[in-house]
Amino acid sequence: AVTGQIPAVGQTVPGGSQVLVYLGDAPPEKEVEVPDFTGMNRQQANDVALSLGLYLLVTGNREISPNVTVTSQSQLPGTRVLQGTTVTLEFTNTTVRD
Predict the structure, then answer these.
(1) The pLDDT value given to residue 27
(2) For the CA atoms of the chain, what is the radius of gyration?
């Protein structure tokens, strides 16, 4: 029987994400601190999220560029969440246009 999964039931994750299903023992419940993603580009945000066991849901500008960075996030920096939690990031092109 399935005893747990990461991400948790009800979490939204991007297409192509991996889901861990636990059979037998319950999954470990490890809390991590949500970092401040503000100003990070897509690669930086992905690297940090991966290192913490967090999922990212990208909104806003989906272009991969150093000028497209995080301008807001769904959980405040410093919030403690379980690994496998999805953090929604809003990306915006921060290049100043004349």
Answers:
(1) 64
(2) 15
Task: Report whether 32 contacts 80 (CB < 8 A).
Answer: yes
Instruction: Report yes or no on whether pTM surpasses 0.90.
Output: no
Long-range contacts, 88-92 (Cβ 8 Å, 24+): 88/56, 88/57, 88/59, 89/37, 89/45, 89/56, 89/57, 89/58, 89/59, 90/59, 90/60, 91/42, 91/58, 91/59, 91/60, 91/61, 91/62, 92/60, 92/61, 92/68
Q: Residue 32: what residue type? A: V
Three-point CA angle 24, 54, 36, nearest 5° = 150
